[in-house]
Amino acid sequence: MDIRYQVKGFFKKPHNIILFVVFILLCYLTLVPMVTMIHDTVTVHTAEAKRLKLPVGAFTFEHWRKVLADSSSINVFYKPFLNSLVTSLGACAIALGFGGAFAWFVTRTNMRWKRLLSSLCIFPYIMPSWTLALAWYNLFKNSLVGGSPGLISSITGIQTPNWLAYGPLPIALVTGLHYAPFAYIMIGGILRNMDANLEEAALMLNTSRLRIMYKITIPIVIPAVLSTFLLVFSSAMSSFAVPTFLGLPVRYQVLTTQLYRTLNGLNPGQGYVIASLMIILGVSILAMNQRIVGLRKTYTTVTGKSSNIALVNLKKMKTPVSLLIAFILFCVSIVPLLSFAIESLILRPGDYSFSNFTTQFWFGTAQQNSMANSEPGLLLNPKLYSSLWNSIKLSLFCAASAGTIGFLAGYAIVRGRGTKLATWVNNLAFFPYLMPSMAFSAIYLSMFAVRRGPIPALYGTFFLLVVAGTVKYLPFASRSGINAMFQLSKEIEEAGLIMGVGWFKRMTRLVIPIQKSSFISGYLLPFTSSMRELSLFILLMTPTNQVLTTLLFYYNEKGWNQYSNGINLLIVIIVIAFNFLINKVTGASIDKGIGG
Amino acid sequence: MPRIELIDVSKRFGKFVAVDLLNMVIEDGSFISLLGPSGCGKTTTLRMIAGLETPTEGRIIIDGKTVFDSKRQIDLSPAKRDIGFLFQNYALWPHMTVYQNIAFGLENLKWSKEDIRANVEKLLAMLRIDEFAARYPAELSGGQQQRVAIARTLATNPKVLLMDEPLSNLDAKLRMEMRTELKRLHVETGATFVYVTHDQLEAMTLSSKICLLDKGVLQQYDRPLGVYNKPVNTFTADFVGNPAINLLPVEVQSVKDGNVMLSNEAMHVSFKPTELFSVAKGEKVTLGLRPELISVTDASEYKVEVYSSLPSGMETIVRFKIGEAILNAVVFGSLDFPVGSSVGIHFTSDKLLVFHADGRLLGTGSVQHLTHRK
Predict the structure, then answer these.
(1) N or C end of chain A: which has fewer CB within 10 A?
(2) So what's the ipTM on this one?
């Protein structure tokens, strides 16, 4: 058979056309930027030319040397790296401890209010990752590093020590608490689906509860635990906002804050080196996870028929334990919101007496707010509305393109399953998930900061934000597209094909209506993620196209507490409202997604 | 009326050969079964006829029109082949009612509303599902879904109906009923039916011809009774018939006066071939005995011990040992035999089979004497 005929036959199938187009697109948007960035780690940039005494664009290993093998490397890379490791490991321990314990209580004991507590538990995970950090800051900050004291210091009169207010402990704690619901979902899912007979069989043999726990229950959930561990670890490593709020006051640098500093400062080359190292780390962690998940299938018994195992009777402890858990959940899900509301309402920071309360940061005009740098109150503030509009616009665009490309890619990957091209597209579409957001935007910064061929310099444009968001959230959409298509037998489509129904009509009349809810969630996940995204956009942002999250960051950098707290409250409310809406409309809930 | 021709059709997935140089002519209006164990290439063959799978090589002609030719680079889309396809899982569209499912193909052909209505109603009546027109597939039982799937496939009035194990998801009783329906439909529509199944009984009872495949290679293409009575090799002999044929390894002791003396460690038989075939002394061959051709009779000198007995009312399967081999015999009538008791057996028919060591059929014949080996 000649090649021309083969090519013609190949492109006769719609899924092959999609695979081909998406492949080219993703190569350009993920692989090429990677290469560009690696090239940037060995190139002299304008900001560095004078110091390095080399012409701009010259080849140099100086950046790598500075980062890895210089007297300053300790501060540039190794210390932040170590700090990142410490806080991330701490966060994992806390997430697994809290999430795992809660999962066990819900699935294996007769605790009270399971349903209510279970939905309350998911709360911190829905909120932006820095929510708890900002709340912690509001409550525990002290005046030792300058600025006003927090709520606890003000009320008790005791200065909170620095180790409690800032640095590794609170960073690990709030990150851990943010991801605890994720651990709960993963481990709880296994515990719930685990065949109770496994434990009952041991019970028949007169094994003690404790022995059952560590001989049977724990080994079975171990793969889920490991997988949770790795995902939390890599998310914590790439978290930017939390260490910014809780680390910077005491100059506690982690990799992401260091990356932001170097890229925004005089050493972009070093920034790109750090970004490359972070990507290598991220990819290897998630590769490990893929392996574990692959292995897990071989021995996790999930049966639909599992009878209810006899729940551990907490007896007298039932109410106290339930109350304690309820209290903890109240602290991590409701208290932060109250704290934002309070902080946005007090006139002089640090003074929580009733007379100090004011609504001027919400409703005051620029003239009334002369003492607050003449910044009008949030609800009268054009900055708020323009960034809110930008946020929504950006999220809509990202959702529309990521959702559509993701769905098509998912469709084509499943239809073309087994071919090399499908495998490639599948991996490429998942690739952005492996990259820390900050490093990912560093890549785009590197790629699009200057004109390259027919593509003009895109830095500072809204379009670049859309492209970055689309590619970064593509994994969510393509995963849900793939899942949807796997659930739909191909015969459903073939039945239409045989009747002569064209491809477009097969999509719109058969495939999409049947998989409506997965299809919609492929759009909604990118939308909500983008609404609460900070680290992806912060590097690519210019003052003219602020979104809500970067505006929050801007106010925070300026130290205008009331505004940043107010905006944060707004973001949380919007995100929660959207999640509620999604839940109502599609029945899809966040615990069904792959998380992020 | 359509006739389907497959000429040197092959399908390879990478190195795996799913179908290997298949040649077959399906006459108009016939009812053909593609039969074989799972993975033998029968579904692949069906899907290649439909155009859902592209053959690696070969030619497919439907009704005189070449729909696929790897040499001339012809590959017609399924829609242009004038076929209907009935899927194993029915593939009903869950978001459409029964009526909409059946009407969809006609709407796509831009039929007028009234014509669609008339045609759908005719089909609903024909398959006795009129009362379910407004229901969704999920609200129907398996058998009802099956009827809807058939109605939907028939709606566009295809000249060829391809069916991929359509009855495998039904329970035994419904399956029996649907077999009757399918045979009736075949006559009513006058279309050519090509039917995939791994159930030999279904293939035997339904089809005018059976195409038996193994590992992608055509084994036998013949009328059902042809396959049953004169299987070309031990594979086809073993695949059709339930309980399965007894395949008894024996050795040729002598060839004398057209009689062949065969024996294993416990018996000698003198076998008289219907037509002469050549075997040599000392050659290892296989004796094929259908269970119903072994008669259990006290008149026989050859006694065996009953290994087990499985009465089912209409007939009883008696199992016994000859040497190391366990054989099945079917005895008609309500009988039972105590385990361990002694019964006499004889091979009575002239339809006994002898296979070469490599599996192919040497010939048929009858047994003159059956004696114990001393």
Answers:
(1) N
(2) 0.80
